[in-house]
Amino acid sequence: MNDKSFHIALAGNPNAGKTTLFNHLTGSRQHVGNYPGVTVEKKEGLCTHREQRLRVVDLPGTYSLTAYSVEELVARDYLVNERPEVVVNIVDAVNLERNLYLTCQFLELGVPLVIALNMVDAAEKRGISINTAELSRLLGVPVLPIVARSGRGVPELLDTVLAVSQEKDHPPTLLRYGSDIDLALRDLVPLLEEGRLLTALYPARWIALKMLENDEQIISQVMRADATLGRQLISRSESLTQHLRNTLDAYPEAVIADHRYGFIKSILRQGVVARTFDEDRLYASDRIDKVVTHRLLGPLIMAAILFALYSFTFNWSSFFVELLAGLFEAFGGAMQTLLPDGPLKSMLIAGVIDGAGGVLGFVPIIMFMFFGIAVLEDSGYLARVAFMMDRIFHFFGLHGSSVMPFIISGGIAGGCAVPGVFAARTLRSPKERMATLLTVPFMNCGAKLPVLTLIIGAFFAEHQAGYMVLATLFTWLTALLAAKFLRLTVLKGESTPFVMELPPYRFPTVRGLLTHTWERTWQYMKKAATVILGISILLWAMMTYPGLPADKAGEFAALRQQAAQNVKDIDQLEAEAKLRHSAAGRIGIALEPVSRWAGFDWRTNIALVGGFAAKEVILSTLGTAYSLGETDPNDAAPLKERLKTDPRWTPAAALAFLVFVMFYAPCFVTAVAIAKESGSWKWAAFSIGFNTLVAFTLAVLIFQAGLLFR
Question: Do 264 and 305 belong together in one domain?
């Protein structure tokens, strides 16, 4: 095998199949992070083809290389600064004209380019035939037909990538933009070349185009490099802008875009695309959508699919959950027997096994839930959910594009609020964006899912799937009402229109489903084994120290000597007294005068305080709090059984606890994300306070109603 690793970048429009190809190429040999200084996700992986190792980077999806968004800026900067040997431009064969707009900009930038014409199977089903050889000849770069989800054509694509990587010369393509633009370019390009202004990074003509398009990043780079020459170039650009405004009532960027699309259309009309169908007939996806997105049937179908998802999750994961619970219980019993009494034993059993181990015990549920969500996502159904929910979102003062941040955050239980917060940046209206940022933490993220599963399984076991559907619907309703309140008060303003392109339905591939499921499950496991473990041990220490005062410890010693009670009962009383006197216990007791209105005792308060750091900690802290003081491993019971037998945990108290966990303050990482995306910590603080107030109000109402009707 050749030790040299070739560097290739995958680029293309959103929904063109770029990530599907990336997953097919790299499989499990990939890692995810963020680009330095921004919150845009960075994916890298390795693959091997013909004994040649390839380092593959999945660039953010973008429609253009003009830096109107962070994603476009990241993609462009990566191509310029990292200079991959080959850029693979993934193009949707069904939407060829729109996708080739980005291709034009790659050609003008002069990057080593290979076009992967994806989803040719979907194009064929629609009667669209594409002459890839002619398209390749007209564009001057290789064009390979592929089906990324099945791997069809991918080996040939990689053969071409390796061949192009050996080529040295990749001159930029010169497109024509009409006499006015071309004349301005002829004035600007010599000035850039003579002044050597950024020409080591970009072609001079491309820099001139970006200046005419009013690309803020390029203009600022030019001004930093040579302010005098920069002002001269800007003056010429402004003259062109004024001329076009006077003659065509248009801006240069609009004229440039029109000519790019004209170039694309001229190519497609030269025998590249042939259609063998009646354009007015409905395709399979359209026929399905007539039913699935129907105003009346659509929501009913969505509810049925949610119920099926939760039924599948709970029914198929129960065996594995019980198996893991048995393993942790046996491990805890072994530690009870093998280790001598002392802080180490208490920390390992109460802090690690009953704490973080309790979170890991829900991995099967998380895995099955993520698998079900991956099916909905890869099939194209989640996009239909967004389309249907748009009708409702406008009523509550949100934009249709807010739907995806809600879904990503856990609109279908199991997401994460952090990427949901980042996904809200696609919203153009600042007030709609802020309303979305503040309400996505209401969704049932993967961290809340084990808590919901525990409480529903303990107190409402006969109707688990039904309660999960109700919890999901109640979550959406509460989030939308909160958004309406915000839009009527602190974030007043009109809603903006929503435009969305629905991808065709597809059969998910087994490999794609397993990859998505494993990625998300591994993130959950990694968090449980690192962050949650650390917080669990910290909270165990807070629940253990400073311990009982000497006089109190003496009282329990005297009781044992008198043997007036069962020694085991005395040990349990002493353990509870120690927990009460611990730092965490004192915090929980201090909150009890307020929290008791919602049915929360001091022990529950400890868990909820820990949940401000991360919601998974609620489960681990409850496990620790209810296991401290166990002296006989044979008496140990799963946390679910302990809660069921505790007289303080009535169904009303459990339901109030469940609702409070669903809605109270976002975890610390989400709060940081809100602060970063909003540009101010005051909005993160507002989110913590507002969400907690909403959650506590609902919990009090539920618990007090339970007291009235019991």
Answer: no
Question: Would the pLDDT of 634 be above 50?
Answer: no
Specify if 593 maps to a domain.
no
Q: How far apart are CA 666 and CA 688, in angstroms?
A: 6
Average pLDDT value for the chain = 81
To which residue do tokens 């990587």 refer? 165
DSSP 628-668: TT---GGG---HHHHHHH-TT--HHHHHHHHHHHHHS---H
Residues 257, 161, single domain; the answer is no
For residue 343, what pLDDT band results from cuts at 50, 70 and 90? Answer: confident
Q: Is residue 589 part of a domain?
A: no
Give yes or no for a contact between 170 and 185, defined as CB atoms under 8 angstroms apart: no
**Co-location of 207 and 87 in the same domain:** no
> What burial letters (b/e) apply to 527-554, b meaning 16+ CB within 10 Å?
bbeebbbebbbebbebbbeeebeeeeee
Domain that holds residue 327: 282-491+511-525+643-710
Instruction: Give the mean pLDDT of 113-126.
Output: 89
**Within a 10 A sphere around the Cβ of 196, how many other Cβ atoms?**
12
87 plus 233 within the same structural domain: no
- Alpha-helical segments (H) within 339-362: 343-346, 357-360
143: phi then psi, degrees, rounded to nearest 5: -125, 120
Stated pTM of the model = 0.57
pLDDT band at 132 (very low <50, low <70, confident <90, very high): very high
Domain harbouring 103, CATH code: 3.40.50.300
CA 315 to chain centre: 26
405 close to 441: Cβ distance less than 8 angstroms:
no
Whole-angstrom Cα distance, residue 44 to residue 346? Answer: 42
Rounded to whole angstroms, the Cα distance separating 391 from 387 reads 8
**DSSP letters for 289-319:** HHHHT-TTHHHHHHHHHHHHHHHHHHHHHHH
Q: Does one domain contain both 254 and 398?
A: no
In 269-296, alpha helices (H): 284-292
Among 221, 242, 275, the domain boundary falls at 275
Does the pLDDT value for residue 2 go beyond 70? no
Beta bridge partners of 294: none
- Based on the structure, what is the number of domains in the chain? 3
Show the tokens assigned to 641. 């059984």
Tokens of 262: 């004209």
Q: What is the rounded distance in angstroms from the CA atom of residue 210 to the CA atom of residue 234? A: 11
Whether residue 134 is contained in a domain is answered as: yes
SS3 annotation, 107-146? HHHCCCEEEEEECHHHHHHCCEEECHHHHHHHHCCCEEEC
Which one-letter amino acid corresponds to residue 344?
Answer: L
Using only the alpha carbons of the chain, give its radius of gyration: 30
Is 688 contained in some domain? yes
Residue 261 shares a structural domain with residue 381: no
Task: pLDDT band for 569, please (50, 70, 90 cuts).
Answer: low
Which residues, including other chains, have CB under 8 Å from residue 83's CB and lie 6 or more apart? none
Q: Give the end of a domain, one of 142, 165, 188.
A: 165
Angle at 646 between CA 645 and CA 648, to 5 degrees: 140
CB 566 within 8 A of CB 574: no
The answer to which of 409-423, 564-578, 613-627 has the lowest mean pLDDT is 564-578
Integer Cα distance of 633 and 334 in angstroms: 8
- Helix (H) or strand (E) holding 349, with range, is none
What span, in angstroms and rounded, lies between the C-alpha atoms of 184 and 450? 62
Give the 3-state secondary structure percentages of the chain, helix then strand then coil, rounded to 5: 65, 10, 25
